[in-house]
């Protein structure tokens, strides 16, 4: 099997699967070494980007998925029916930020940081598949530990949590009125 045929098979697998597909699954199907599969997929990512194709291959941890390019959103949304889903509230965004940086974290720790209850925000984030239960703390009551999902990474265009901006970067940002207005207009 030549390299071109392997790329075509990988493309077909990613297209058919729809959700992120783990590199080990691709490796097992093709009966190739993991490093070789990774190298081929990296070449495919470069090819897709160089040729400015309408779809791209995105990496989420050790998984890959075919997706549309964000710059084509305006055209794609004309094809799709209007989405009635609401955007996240400030409380949900605040809770999601805390979970993304402090995970795994309990509800009580989140509420301690925010200073208010977060039941509704947690339910919203779970319903939107942005967070999930990742375990339980080994102490009285065995409180639930929360963490982010792969959908979170996909939604924010991150390959891994290491791509999150460092907290010290936020301290160096001085928000002036223009910046605040710009951020409000992007919402």
Q: Could you characterize what this model shows?
A:
InterPro entries: ScpB_csome_segregation, WH-like_DNA-bd_sf, WH_DNA-bd_sf. It comes from Caldisalinibacter kiritimatiensis. Helices cover 52% and strands 14% of the residues. The chain is of the alpha+beta class. The chain folds into two domains: 3-72, Orthogonal Bundle (Arc Repressor Mutant, subunit A); 90-177, Winged helix-like DNA-binding domain superfamily/Winged helix DNA-binding domain (Arc Repressor Mutant, subunit A, Orthogonal Bundle), CATH 1.10.10.10. Helix 5 packs across helix 7 (119-127).
**Strand fraction:** 5-15%
H-E order: HEHHEEHHEHHEEHHH
- The CATH topology name of the largest domain reads Arc Repressor Mutant, subunit A
How would you describe the shape? globular
What distance separates the N and C termini?
Answer: 49 Å
Uncertain spans, ≥5 residues at pLDDT below 50? Answer: none
What is the CATH level 1 assignment of the largest domain? Answer: Mainly Alpha
Tell me the CATH superfamily of the largest domain. Winged helix-like DNA-binding domain superfamily/Winged helix DNA-binding domain
What Rg do the Cα atoms give? 20 Å
Indicate the structural class.
alpha+beta
Strand order, main sheet: write it out.
Answer: 1-3-2
SS element count, helices: 10
Instruction: Assign a percent range to the helix content.
Output: 40-55%
Biggest beta sheet summary: 3 strands, antiparallel
At CATH level 2, the architecture of the largest domain is Orthogonal Bundle
Query: Could you give the count of β-strands?
Result: 6
Average pLDDT confidence is 87
Give the count of structural domains.
2
Protein name: Segregation and condensation protein B
Function: Participates in chromosomal partition during cell division. May act via the formation of a condensin-like complex containing Smc and ScpA that pull DNA away from mid-cell into both cell halves.
Family: Belongs to the ScpB family.
Keywords: Cell cycle, Cell division, Chromosome partition, Cytoplasm
């Amino acid at each position: 099997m030549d390299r071109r045929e392997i790329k075509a098979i990988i493309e077909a697998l990613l297209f058919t699967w729809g959700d992120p597909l783990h590199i080990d699954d691709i490796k097992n199907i093709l009966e190739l070494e993991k490093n070789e599969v990774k190298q081929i997929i990296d070449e495919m990512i470069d090819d897709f980007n160089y040729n400015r194709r309408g779809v791209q291959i995105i990496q989420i941890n050790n998984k890959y998925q075919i997706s549309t390019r964000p710059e084509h959103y305006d055209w794609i949304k004309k094809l799709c029916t209007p989405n009635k889903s609401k955007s996240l509230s400030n409380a949900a965004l605040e809770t999601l930020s805390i979970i993304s940086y402090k995970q795994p974290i309990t509800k009580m720790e989140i509420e301690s940081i925010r200073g208010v209850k977060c039941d509704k925000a947690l339910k919203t984030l779970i319903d939107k598949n942005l967070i999930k239960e990742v375990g339980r703390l080994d102490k009285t009551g065995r409180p639930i530990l929360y963490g982010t999902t792969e959908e979170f990474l996909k939604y924010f265009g991150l390959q891994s949590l290491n791509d999150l901006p460092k907290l010290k970067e936020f301290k160096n940002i001085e928000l002036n009125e223009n910046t605040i207005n710009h951020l409000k207009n992007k919402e």
